[in-house]
Design brief:
three-stranded antiparallel beta sheet, globular, binds s-citryldethia Coenzyme A
Length: about 425
């Protein structure tokens, strides 16, 4: 393949380099386009055809349904690794050695205390507050309690920021849940593993010892791994662009949490459960909701279906569908919602509208069923997504800063009023 391409504009030819990635993806490098063409730019609403960066973290092939973190398949990592190993891999680029792994765990535990003054911020929220609004605010507040901004060129400084947020964020997640439930805030137990400690902080009843359930530990570990990164999705792109102004790590993460909240993105896992509940209330009438999803006059979309990149099964959805069966079976839970989900999936996979548009179940379609089986309230599902995505956001933020990328500042095509003079109010 040639390593350049030519664009002809107003009869003049302009040559631009073609760049090929390690997975043979090809990009046109248009960094000189505006200068070379006296102001011509590209326009690509939603960036469906536009790469924002070069990245070595996550590769996904939407047509083949492939997802790899630093070259390792999501299937292998979900089966053989634990969440902190995957976090280390995403952020630092290699799976940790035994010593590195042990040190990472211990350094995170050492950072798992949250300033008691943050409790006052938690107390100030109404019980009706959505957990995503709480966790986004608490994450931003961490900047106030840890003002030293990250010196990304200092490995030590970056490492300390990473273990600090990985240590504190699960505490904030559990405080968010317990606030809503009117339970005393829990600091966890440094003797426990990372995931065990999350479950204890979330579910410990004040008047009883918390008994670990290995099914829940393994399931949550797998859910966090499956959500850990997903290249330049909406919330990750938000973290990168906020960080590109050299805003702090915690402030960038807080912005990413807000972007994830939307029902078209991470908020879909909550919307899927609400949709399945509505179908159940409707007597399981899946055909009515399929018709609504296809009706262009109806804003309703089949939540948990479709994806900007996957035009095949989301590999995470495949793993989660199997996990949903296993978890509900192991916990002895008969959830009619799971059967409705499977029925809806079967119908959609045979429906011309969905087949023609390559709309398959995505990561959010089955995750909510599992979260619910674990006893997590529906409005906490997207907070759990953020807990999993944290290492990916950190990894992408660090890569953007280490690559010294310029501040993100897209251009636009102006279509508003041309120049006109001010009209005094008496004459309007
Ligand atoms: C996540 O990007 C990531 O990687 C995200 C994520 C991650 O890990 O970070 O994977 C997590 O956000 C998964 C997606 C969760 N969102 C949902 O499940 C919400 C429902 N899905 C849709 O809103 C939609 O599929 C999107 C937002 C996910 C993707 O939308 P696109 O790529 O912008 O596609 P589109 O809106 O241009 O749709 C193309 C066509 C349209 O019909 P036509 O105009 O061609 O007739 O497909 C239709 C859409 O109306 N369509 C749907 C649909 N999704 C797309 N129709 C009904 N139900 C749907 N769910």
């Amino acid at each position: 393949m040639s390593d350049t391409t030519t664009l002809e504009i107003n009869g003049k030819k302009h040559e631009f380099p073609l760049i090929t990635g390690t997975e043979n993806e090809v990009a046109i490098d248009i960094k000189s386009l505006r200068a070379d063409t006296n102001g011509v730019i590209t326009l690509d609403s939603g960036y469906k055809n536009t790469g924002s960066c070069k990245s070595a973290i996550t590769f996904l092939d939407g047509e083949k349904g492939i997802l790899r973190y630093r070259g390792y398949s999501i299937e292998e990592l979900a089966e053989k690794a634990d969440f902190l190993e995957v976090a280390y891999l995403l952020i630092f680029g290699e799976l940790p050695t035994k010593e590195q792994n042990e040190k990472f765990h211990n350094d995170i535990k050492a950072q798992s205390l949250v300033d008691d003054d943050i409790r006052k911020i938690v107390d100030a929220f109404p019980k009706s507050a959505h957990p995503m609004g709480i966790i986004s605010s608490l994450t931003s507040a961490l900047t106030a309690f840890n003002p030293s901004s990250v010196n990304v060129n200092s490995e030590a400084d970056m490492y300390n920021s990473v273990v600090r947020i990985l240590g504190k964020f699960p505490v904030l997640v559990s405080w968010t849940l317990r606030k809503k439930q009117g339970l005393p805030l829990d600091y966890g137990d440094k003797q426990l593993g990372y995931v065990e400690n999350i479950l204890k902080m979330m579910f410990q009843e004040p008047n009883a010892c918390y008994v670990q359930n290995n099914i829940l530990v393994d399931t949550l570990d797998k859910l966090l791994i499956l959500h850990a990164d997903h290249e330049q999705n909406c919330s990750t792109s938000t973290v990168r662009i906020v960080g590109s102004s050299h805003a702090g790590l915690f402030a960038s993460l807080s912005a990413g949490i807000s972007a994830l909240w939307g029902p078209l993105h991470g908020g879909a896992n909550q919307a899927v459960l609400e949709m399945l509940e509505a179908i159940k209330e409707d007597g399981g009438d899946t055909k009515k909701y399929m018709a609504k999803a296809k009706d262009k006059n109806d804003p309703f979309r089949l939540m948990g279906f479709g994806h900007r990149v996957y035009k095949n099964f989301d590999p995470r959805a495949k793993i989660l569908k199997k996990a949903a069966d296993e978890v509900l079976g192991n916990l002895g839970i008969e959830d009619p919602i799971l059967e409705i989900a499977k029925g809806l999936e079967k119908e959609a996979l045979e429906d011309k509208y969905f087949v023609d548009r390559k709309l398959y179940p995505n990561v959010d379609f089955y995750s909510g069923i599992i979260y619910r089986a674990m006893g997590i309230p529906t409005d906490m599902f997207t907070v759990m997504f953020a807990l999993g995505r944290l290492p990916g956001w950190i990894a992408q933020w660090r890569e953007m800063r280490l690559n010294k990328e310029p501040i993100g500042r897209p251009r636009q095509l102006y279509i508003g009023a041309t120049e006109r003079s001010f009209t005094p109010v008496e004459e309007r």
